[in-house]
Amino acid sequence: MKHLAIWTAAAAVAATSAFAGGHLPDLDGQEVVVATENAYPPLQFIEPGTGDAVGWEYDAMAEIAERINITVVYENISWDAMIPAVSEGQFDMGMTGITIREDRAEKVDFSEPYMRSEMVMLVRGDEDRFSDATGFAADPDLLMAAQPGTTPFYVGVYEVLDGDEGNPRIKLFETFGAGVQALRTGDVDLVLTDGTAGAGYVEASDGALKIVGNKLGTEDFGFIFPKGSDLVEPINAAIADMKDDGTIDALNTKWFLDFKVGG
């Protein structure tokens, strides 16, 4: 596969060495502007009925803000504009389940991974034409939804299909949710997503969706920052602290086991 999720130990070293005494830094209420997309449940999404932006990442950022004393301001932006905008310093951070990858690390700095995920194949509940990646690839009439530049897009190109990023069998959508809706209405036949989010969609679908085949790839998620940002080390320290005291595990339970998409 051309684009692999990677993470060097540098971020972990920064998190454990800079604040080795166990005391988190105090940033004195510093305002931190975070770019979000709100289209990747359960990490971040607009809650039906209330219109509130909620999710795993919002809860995590609230914890981080309290631990290192920052004031978080959120700004919504599309996925395809997020990395360039953060790279140019238009925002202090970006979050939307962003996979840590070598090519992206040339443009932005990443935090320590806060989550590891694996890709699964999400299909309609009555799908019987294929049951794995090989079967999907073998039928030229079958279509896949993806957002351009995302890990599901690259996994679809290089692990499911033929490595051609212009393959017409990949239908591009601006948001992940739009791709899932296209799957449900029959406009496409497959959506790749991380296993935890996929399980949430299946559970909430009342049989309309299911997961087939084997897991296709492993990815580590991280927050992004402009290159050289002073926020990386303190936020890494907060993430490490949240892992140590069980907060990360509690968030995983809340959003991936207890949470119901649309419920």
Mean pLDDT: 88
Which word captures the global form? globular
Structural class: alpha/beta
How are helices and strands ordered from N to C? HEEEEHEHEHEEHEHEHEHEEEHH
| CA-CA gap between termini | 36 Å
The Rg value, from CA coordinates, equals 19 Å
Strand content: 15-25%
Question: Runs with pLDDT <50, length 5+?
Answer: 1-21
Q: How many E-type strands?
A: 14
Number of helices: 10
Largest pleated sheet: 6 strands, mixed
Helix content: 25-40%
Outline:
This protein has helices at 10-17, 56-68, 79-87, 102-105, 133-138, 151-160, 176-185, 195-204, 232-244, 247-258, and strands at 30-36, 39-40, 44-46, 53-54, 70-76, 93-95, 108-110, 115-124, 144-146, 170-172, 190-194, 209-212, 218-221, 224-226. It has 263 residues and is of the alpha/beta class.
What is the secondary structure topology, with strand pairs?
Blueprint: H1 10-17, E1 30-36, E2 39-40, E3 44-46, E4 53-54, H2 56-68, E5 70-76, H3 79-87, E6 93-95, H4 102-105, E7 108-110, E8 115-124, H5 133-138, E9 144-146, H6 151-160, E10 170-172, H7 176-185, E11 190-194, H8 195-204, E12 209-212, E13 218-221, E14 224-226, H9 232-244, H10 247-258
Parallel strand pairs: 1-5, 1-6, 9-10, 9-11
Antiparallel strand pairs: 2-3, 3-4, 7-14, 8-11, 8-12, 8-13
What would you note in describing this structure?
This protein has 263 residues and is of the alpha/beta class. It has 10 helices and 14 strands. The strands form 4 sheets. Strands 8, 9, 10, 11, 12 and 13 form a 6-stranded mixed β-sheet that branches. A 3-stranded parallel β-sheet has the order 5-1-6, with helices on both faces. Strand 3 and strand 4 form a beta hairpin. Helix 2 crosses helix 9. The longest helix has 13 residues, at 56-68. The protein is globular. The two termini are 36 Å apart. Mean pLDDT is 88; it is low at 1-21.
